[in-house]
């Protein structure tokens, strides 16, 4: 029998791949740049003024849950338009605190974000540029601590849909490190910096209803690294997502099932190479809020169980992540998140 922590570690690693494809899949909606506020992107309801989220460590206990030492406290502040004006992170173990400031143009587009340490020294800066239609065209993130820079360049079609995204990351030490987004990511591609830019290019295709049907990932030499495809039902809901490697061999496929209200009810995912199968099931309250989200690995008879509680406005205020192995009685509380929300 595998040890509890060995199974947990392996489950975490594979769950990351599954969740990555899940996030890609769930974001195939027709959401053009500048159309949603930060509140909407975060799934927050009502006129939220501030949100403070504290993450507590889980404590392993056989057959029962217990907490708790605080790990991280994050405070986020919003303006009346629903956009973030600042953030504060506090790490309890080290005592380190960082502060984030945000600046917007007159159209409400984020133009600059700075992360400062507790001495006011700049750690990271993100600068954004937009076209006349408010679509982001370039984003540069500079990390002053790591001496690295990430550049993203975006292109759109006549309907405002993103058709191409290029990404370059540079780190000091004579290395260019580029990462392939999506579930096909295994290891970073490391190349020597010979005075030329090394880019990762992502191209997107759409159907006549505006649903994203394909994403392709290319290396700087034009070589296809991976591709993802998506299928939808007649209501525009994604029903299948597939990921292929550079040889166009199917690596992972996921299928989706919804309830009568359009909420994601079940999801199945499978790795064609290893035979790994992962199942996800969701439960909702009568307001449509997700209250339970369970991932289960058949291979290891283990998984994760996420539970939520909500305030009167429909925003979750507690989120408990449990890991279980072999039987539900063998349970480990990974983390507990608690929120304090202030409204305008």
Can I get a quick summary?
The protein has 344 residues and is mainly β. Helix content is 8%, strand content 56%. A hairpin with a 4-residue loop joins strand 7 and strand 8 (148-156).
Provide an overview of this structure.
With 344 residues, the chain is mainly beta. The protein has a domain at 68-197: Lipocalin. 8% of the residues lie in helices and 56% in strands. The chain has two helices and 22 strands. The protein has a 20-stranded antiparallel barrel. A hairpin with a 5-residue loop joins strand 14 and strand 15. The longest helix is centred in the first third of the chain and has 23 residues, at 4-26. It is globular and about 50 Å long. The N and C termini lie far apart (54 Å). The relative contact order is 0.15.
Notable traits:
344 residues; Lipocalin; mainly beta; globular; 22 strands; 8% helix; 20-stranded antiparallel beta barrel
SSE layout:
Elements: H1 4-26, H2 38-41, E1 48-59, E2 66-78, E3 84-91, E4 97-104, E5 110-116, E6 122-130, E7 136-143, E8 148-156, E9 162-171, E10 175-178, E11 189-192, E12 200-206, E13 212-218, E14 224-232, E15 238-244, E16 250-258, E17 264-271, E18 277-284, E19 290-297, E20 302-310, E21 316-325, E22 327-343
Antiparallel strand pairs: 1-2, 1-22, 2-3, 3-4, 4-5, 5-6, 6-7, 7-8, 8-9, 9-10, 9-12, 10-11, 12-13, 13-14, 14-15, 15-16, 16-17, 17-18, 18-19, 19-20, 20-21, 21-22
Please mark out the parts with pLDDT under 50 across 5 or more consecutive residues, or reply none: 16-31, 174-197
Distance between the termini: 54 Å
Structural class: mainly beta
H/E order of the elements? HHEEEEEEEEEEEEEEEEEEEEEE
């Amino acid at each position: 029998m595998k040890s509890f922590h060995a199974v947990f570690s392996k489950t975490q690693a594979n769950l990351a791949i599954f969740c990555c494809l899940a996030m890609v899949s769930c974001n195939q909606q027709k959401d053009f740049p500048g159309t949603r506020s930060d509140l909407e992107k975060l799934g927050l309801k009502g006129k939220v003024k501030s949100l403070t989220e504290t993450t507590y460590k889980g404590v392993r206990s056989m057959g029962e849950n217990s907490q708790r030492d605080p790990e991280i406290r994050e405070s986020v502040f919003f303006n009346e338009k629903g956009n973030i004006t600042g953030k504060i992170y506090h790490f309890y173990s080290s005592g380190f605190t960082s502060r984030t400031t945000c600046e917007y143009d007159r159209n409400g587009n984020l133009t600059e974000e700075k992360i400062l340490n507790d001495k006011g020294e700049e750690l990271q800066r993100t600068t954004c540029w937009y076209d006349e239609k408010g679509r982001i065209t370039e984003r540069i993130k500079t990390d002053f601590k790591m001496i690295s820079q990430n550049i993203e360049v975006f292109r759109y079609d006549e309907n405002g849909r993103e058709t191409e995204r290029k990404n370059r990351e540079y780190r000091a030490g004579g290395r260019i490190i580029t990462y392939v987004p999506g579930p096909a990511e295994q290891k970073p591609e490391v190349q020597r910096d010979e005075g030329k830019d090394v880019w990762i290019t992502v191209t997107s295709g759409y159907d006549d209803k505006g649903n994203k049907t394909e994403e392709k990932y290319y290396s700087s030499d034009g070589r296809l690294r991976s591709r993802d495809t998506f299928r939808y039902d007649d209501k525009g809901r994604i029903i299948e997502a597939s990921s292929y490697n550079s040889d166009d061999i199917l690596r992972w496929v996921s299928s989706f099932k919804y309830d009568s209200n359009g909420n994601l009810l079940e999801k199945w995912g499978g790795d064609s190479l290893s035979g790994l199968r992962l199942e996800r099931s969701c439960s909702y309250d009568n307001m449509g809020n997700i209250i339970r989200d369970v991932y289960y690995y058949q291979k290891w008879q283990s998984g994760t169980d996420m539970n939520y509680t909500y305030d009167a406005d429909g925003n979750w205020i507690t989120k408990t992540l449990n890991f279980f192995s072999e039987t539900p009685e063998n349970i480990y509380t990974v983390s507990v998140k608690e929120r304090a929300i202030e409204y305008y």
